[in-house]
Write a structure and sequence with these properties.
Elements lengths: L1 H7 L5 H7 L13 H6 L9 E3 L5 E4 L5 H14 L7 E2 L1 H11 L3 E6 L3 H8 L14 E6 L5 H6 L6 E5 L9 E3 L4 H16 L1
Parallel strand pairs: 3-5, 4-5
Antiparallel strand pairs: 1-2, 4-6, 6-7
Helix pairs in contact: 2-4
């Protein structure tokens, strides 16, 4: 009964649905997944738990109102995301990179599916060790915009790895490949800048 109320209430709210997109959602049925109920000591339903990538519990849903659920989903996704902390705009990302003596990773994307797929590369576990070694800027691609002209970006998606002390040209332009290959490029840029 309470599960249906939650589904029809907070979980049907557009803002809650949007906030949940930053998480992987898994529905567990007590009749079929009893071992998970035992592992996480679940005694009543509905129980909403938040787990990190290793399966460690990092929280549980408290407030069941739409506003409360949205807030908690957003906070959990922000704290436990497998993605860099994106900085809006190229100039801001380069400034942060300068302050930290690390490379800037400028990712030019638009609202097309190809760009959204490209962004998922940055959530790959191969990238996790680099989140503190570089400054990650998400830049909205608008053909002929000032940022696109400055960085000579003519299409999206594209990733530029830049030396913040020398903005004359990117260290690397990356348009496709694996997360592991991109991680290697960023790692090499970080080592180069430390010298």
């Amino acid at each position: 009964m309470y599960c249906k109320q939650l589904d029809a209430g907070a979980f049907s709210d557009d803002k809650v649905v949007k906030a949940s997109e930053g998480l992987i959602r898994i529905l567990v049925d007590n009749g079929k997944d009893g071992k998970l109920f035992q592992k996480y000591n679940i005694s009543g339903m509905p129980t909403i738990l938040f787990l990190d990538a290793e399966g460690k519990q990092v929280g549980s849903l408290g407030d069941r109102s739409a506003g409360g659920v949205e807030k908690q989903l957003t906070e959990i996704a922000s704290k436990h995301s497998r993605a860099p902390q994106w900085i809006a705009g190229a100039d801001a990302a380069v400034t942060v990179a300068k302050d930290g003596s690390k490379p800037g990773v400028l990712v030019f994307v638009d609202d097309k599916p190809k760009s959204q797929l490209f962004l998922k590369i940055f959530s790959d576990p191969a990238m996790a060790a680099l989140y503190e070694k570089a400054s990650f800027g998400k830049v909205e691609f608008k053909k002929d915009s000032e940022e696109c002209r400055k960085w000579k970006v003519t299409e999206a998606p594209v990733c530029l790895i830049v030396d913040p002390a020398d903005e004359s040209k990117p260290l690397k332009t990356w348009k496709s490949g694996t997360a592991k290959a991109l991680a290697k490029e960023i790692e090499e840029a970080a080592k180069k800048l430390k010298k």
